[in-house]
Amino acid sequence: MNVLAELTAVLAERRSADPDSSYVASLYAKGLNRILEKVGEEATEAILAAKDAAGSDAGIANRAALVGETADLWFHTMVMLVHLDIDPQEVLEELERRFGLSGHAEKAARAKD
């Protein structure tokens, strides 16, 4: 089992956990708006970390910070998807479907739908 599948299973289990015993369960209990706030917060933190990592004097610590913030963003995005009964595997399948398409062609195809 890969880490995405393992994490998805844990996130699904946490939907029925006691909010006092689990951070994820507490997010689910607070509802979609709180989950979306966390996704937004983590996106902002990842953007700021990327700016720091792009500097000419960016070092290993800045790179590690960006990796950590991106992991937080992906994690909270997965919480959002599971909360909405969307298996994160569907996102991977969509990326796989797009693989090999030019970005312009893929965007044009979406505009026709």
Tell me roughly what share of residues is in helical segments: over 70%
Q: Could you tell me the number of beta strands?
A: 0
In DSSP terms, counting alpha (H) and pi (I) runs of 4 or more, how many helices?
6
- What pattern of helices and strands is seen along the backbone? HHHHHH
What general form does the structure show? Answer: globular
Give the rounded overall mean pLDDT.
Answer: 91
End-to-end span in angstroms? Answer: 34 Å
Rounded radius of gyration (Å): 17 Å
Share of β-strand residues: under 5%
| Main β sheet profile | none
The SS-based structural class is mainly alpha
Unreliable stretches: none
Which features characterize this protein?
single chain, 113 residues
Description:
The mean pLDDT is 91. By secondary structure, the protein is mainly α. It contains 6 helices and no strands. Helices cover 78% and strands 0% of the residues.
Question: Would you summarize the structure shown here?
Answer:
This protein is mostly helical. The chain has helices spanning 3-14, 23-30, 32-54, 60-83, 88-98, 103-112.
Secondary structure blueprint with pairings:
Layout: H1 3-14, H2 23-30, H3 32-54, H4 60-83, H5 88-98, H6 103-112
Helix pairs in contact: 3-4
